[in-house]
Design a protein that fits this description.
Two copies of one chain form a homodimer. Chain A has 591 residues and is α+β, with helices and mostly antiparallel strands. The first copy, chain A, has helices spanning 5-10, 13-19, 29-35, 43-56, 58-67, 75-78, 84-92, 100-117, 135-146, 150-173, 178-190, 211-227, 272-287, 314-319, 338-344, 351-355, 377-381, 419-437, 472-493, 512-524, 539-544, 571-586, and strands at 231-234, 240-244, 253-259, 296-301, 364-372, 385-391, 393-402, 406-407, 441-443, 447-448, 456-457, 460-469, 496-505, 508-509, 531-534, 549-554. In chain A, strands 1, 2, 3, 4, 5, 6, 14, 15 and 16 form a nine-stranded mixed sheet that branches. In chain A, strands 7, 9, 10, 12 and 13 form a five-stranded antiparallel sheet that branches.
């Protein structure tokens, strides 16, 4: 018989502890401490409480918790001494069916890992979704994590402990994150379409108007129709637009969506999650036979990443009249113009048709977008959702420091004009200065001494600067300080420096009313409200120019890795995003 | 009538000042102040005194001195208002015969230079040797110096002022640095031989046993014979060995020399100066009909730079039995083995013949080597010669820092594991730590974020370390501190680092007795004795393993640039090196 939240809230302390027995491996103290916070509004709230107990327990007890876990395919498994939960997990992960080679490799890794970190390797190895890993993937993850620094690995092990507890909790309560799983499955299907060369290697790459891109659009169109949208169509730039009418068709609509193109060898969730979360909401409304007072217009943007053509935000830009006519004549690496690519895809390829996509902002309530975080913050804080306060403004520069190349042996330290050390000094300043703001970021991503030799003092050093902040004035102050420091470093070191602006984007602060709707929605789930800036650019930046907007972030696994096949999230987290979105839809009229 | 040093020393102060009038452009105060130090033992001593007066005069008067100079091909030249000295110099440099384009370009440069630095461009434009520049070279030098930082350029301008005064002084005294000019001319002739591809472009490249290399050897052989050596021969590795016997043929010989191969696109003086200075000495002894009690054995080493084969110090190594037998089978870029190259050059190409080159150290007094400094120290100190205290020991490492690549926008500053910033922190430490020793040097010459992107936090950073010090314990302490700091940085930043030792060379401290012979020789010229370590490796390092050695450095022009066509010295400085060498030969028996 599955447990209910009501039962748990009503039970005596001892009984409640017994009900939660086995969630954390051989560590009942965690559930016991969390239960003091009853009653719980949701399982999400209970999970947060237990994670908080572990966080507050201190390093010593955390280590004890980690050490309470069995080795993967270790002695305890072989000797049938696992807890019932671990037995099920390791069996379902196929670890009892290891080949002798796999078994040997895992034993080697277990020994090396334990010697390095002092606790056994903990990995959430069972799914069905979000954590269902093959034996080969388990070994690859094991090898990767063995290279982590101790503090990083300890945090990653603890996150896996929480993920195991989450899955075990679902078992106890007999719940499944069904909307989350529906989205998960839809995104798995969508990821089957990939550009040639990537498709064969199992990598995901969908660039503008390729065959894979058009197949993905067709899939989105089908999924929208199946979900019960009233109108679905592909527009003149390839956006897939689905409309679910409100009770009053004349009322202003909520605009929402994200992009379905990807970077090369990218992740399955970047962009696409922001299409399928609202699609799942419509599917849920339709299932309940409900309509909102306002209509919902979901746009799957055809292009955001600027991979095939240098035309980022093409899809969302078209909605605000920001399509650059020169783009039609731009050629891809194979010499195909964008106009030709459009016509080949059955689109008109005319400016007239594209300009007609421009939306009248007065017809819309605003724009909201759900997106995977693409960063480590939520993952590290054990939080499934984050509310975006602003999409950071940014600038990028390509620079070169020029000093004097000289003999590394014969040039005394005080006679050098070392271009690379000048840039090194700047790199440390950028790090310090950005950290001082708390929410600014500054990066030197390209750093290279051209033609460098071991025994030559660098005469030149090429580097880039990427500086971002939640507001334009904060960004501009950061930029001014960085360049003032660069000038001072150059003057002191006898080095000069060229700089070329390659990108400038204004910040897009969230609209206060829409941000607060997201906050109330998250709060209603019993999940802590965490506000954060978005460091990456998103389609919402474009809509920001013409209407109010606010975004919701969903936690990424694997330390928030993005633009990478390791990008991942869980069906549970997606489920929470769908629930938050539904709450927002139900309270569109509130303020 | 040419002036003599005796006249100058004997003259009244007013008369002496009149005799030196015009040395420094419109600035008689310099010679006047220097004359207080009379009597002078040599013109070199007088020049040092005048340079010291300028150095001690302070920034304000130095600026006045610079501003006392006319512009190059400027209004004063056009209006016939130059001093007689400047008129001669600018005319001989061909500046009065500029094309309209050249004239226009020089006026542009004059304006830009004056605007940037606040004084006119000063360049020693007349020769005949060491400073004879074509108009194209003058313009190229002008353009290069315009890019200098103000303090660097001010020092470079002052050095040119001193060089102009030196040439004017020779005019007054009717002296020519005749041995220096002989060496200068011989090295110009030697530089005509260059490997294919470099020869056509006027660049100097002579790698082991190429046709150009063998032509260079033949030239050295001829020059030795012409100078009057008793025995001259090419040995089994291509070294050219010249012997000038002493009065007692059984007495121990002084071994000396340097290498005649070059790096690709190298300089005319690196190595070769150390062959031709002793050859000039023998030439001078022969002209005087003199023999020393001890014999002199000058070896022009065939290979030091390791360019065609990875076999550095092959020539000097053969003399101490350090020829690696595996080298004979090593292939060059065209697939030719060293044995084949030797046989093609008419050498036996057998280990037996090569092993026979090993010298019996008991037959030698020791080894001395003259070499261009290959660094900026003497040039900046206005000193023509330096006495080497030790050839630095060094180590080289190839390293890679590995952190975690992440999104530059979404990864907060305190969540990063930026491999490049870790290396930046190390670079600043290396700079600080090496400077702390005073005479250690540390360089990160290769620095690269592989596959770096503007918007990605660097996950990897490749770099090299080149660490050198005058003694092995000092070097080892430096290395230990650098790696301790690297470990600390890595631990703090969650980064790990690989390191691979690619080179380790022991320090070769100069023999006290031989170093002191060089010091006495330099002192005898009225030139300050300046002791310094050698940052670069030299053939003397090899001989150091079996016999006492000490080296003499000669100032390089152009801020000491080396391994570059800009490497340069002057006939005056070479003259002083020859005179110092002759002094050393005359005092071989002293202690």
């Amino acid at each position: 018989m599955a447990l209910t939240l009501h039962q748990l809230n009503a039970a005596s302390p001892a009984e409640a502890a017994r009900l939660l027995d086995g969630l954390y491996e051989n560590s009942p103290w965690i559930a016991q401490a969390a239960l003091a916070q009853r009653p719980f509004r949701s399982l999400a709230q209970l999970k947060q409480q237990m994670a908080a107990v572990v966080r507050d327990a201190g390093a010593e007890r955390q280590l004890t918790l980690l050490r309470a876990h069995p080795e993967l395919a270790g002695k305890a498994m072989v000797g049938d001494q696992l807890t019932p939960e671990s037995t099920g997990e390791q069996t379902r992960a196929g670890l009892t069916a290891c080949t002798p080679e796999e078994f040997g490799r895992i034993q080697e890794l277990n020994a090396a890992y334990n010697a390095k970190f002092g606790f056994p390797f903990v990995l959430a190895v069972r799914g069905p979704r979000g954590t269902g890993l093959s034996r080969a993937e388990i070994i690859a993850t094991f090898e990767r994590r063995l290279e982590n620094p101790p503090d990083v690995e300890r945090a990653e092990a603890l996150r896996n402990v929480h993920r195991i507890a989450e899955v075990r909790l679902q078992d106890k309560f007999g719940t499944t994150p069904s909307e989350g799983e529906w989205v998960w499955d839809a995104l798995e299907r969508l990821a089957k379409h990939s550009d040639p060369g990537f498709a064969e290697s199992g990598q995901l790459t969908v660039t503008y108007l390729t065959d894979a891109h058009r197949a993905a659009a067709a899939q989105v169109e089908r999924d929208m129709r199946d979900a019960g949208f009233d109108e679905v169509a592909v527009d003149a730039v390839g956006n897939v637009v689905g409309i679910y009418h409100g009770t009053d068709r004349a009322a202003r609509r909520l605009l929402t969506g994200s992009h379905y193109d990807t970077v090369r060898n990218g992740g399955k969730y970047d962009g696409r999650l922001g299409i399928y979360v609202p699609v799942a909401c419509v599917r849920s409304l339709v299932a309940q036979g409900r309509r909102l007072p306002h209509g919902l217009e979901v746009v799957a943007f055809a292009e955001e990443e600027g991979q095939r053509y240098k035309a980022t935000f093409l899809g969302s830009g078209a909605l605000i009249g920001a399509f650059d006519p020169a783009w039609l004549d731009q050629r891809d690496a194979d010499g195909t113009t964008m106009r030709e690519a459009m016509q080949h895809a059955g689109l008109p390829g005319t400016l007239e048709a594209i300009h007609a996509l421009r939306r009248d902002p007065s017809r819309y309530l605003g724009f909201v977008e759900v997106h995977i975080e693409q960063g480590p913050v939520l993952n590290e804080l054990d939080l499934p959702l984050g509310i975006v306060t602003s999409i950071n403004g940014g600038v990028r520069y390509a620079c070169e420091a020029i000093g004097m190349a000289s003999h590394a042996g014969t040039t005394p330290m005080d006679r050098r004009r070392d271009a690379a050390v000048a840039v090194a000094e700047l790199a440390l300043y950028v790090e310090r200065r950005a950290a001082q703001d708390g929410d600014s970021v500054g990066t030197i991503g390209i750093l290279n001494v051209p033609g460098g030799s071991t025994n030559v003092v660098p005469g030149r050093c090429q580097f880039t600067l990427d500086l971002r902040a939640p507001t334009d004035p904060q960004r501009d102050a950061l930029v001014a300080d960085v360049f003032a420091e660069l000038d001072a470093i150059c003057a002191r070191r006898g080095v000069r420096c060229t700089r070329e602006l390659t990108m400038r984007a204004a910040a897009a602060p969230s609209d206060a009313a829409w941000q607060s709707r997201w906050e109330r929605a998250v709060e209603s789930l019993g999940v802590p409200v965490h506000r954060m800036p978005s460091g990456a650019g998103h389609d919402a930046m474009k809509l920001h120019e013409v209407m109010p907007q606010a975004m919701l972030f969903v936690r990424g696994q694997n330390a928030g890795i993005s633009h990478n096949p390791l990008e991942s999230t869980t069906a549970d987290d997606i489920q929470l995003a769908v629930e938050a979105y539904l709450h927002l839809l139900d309270h569109l009229a509130d303020d």
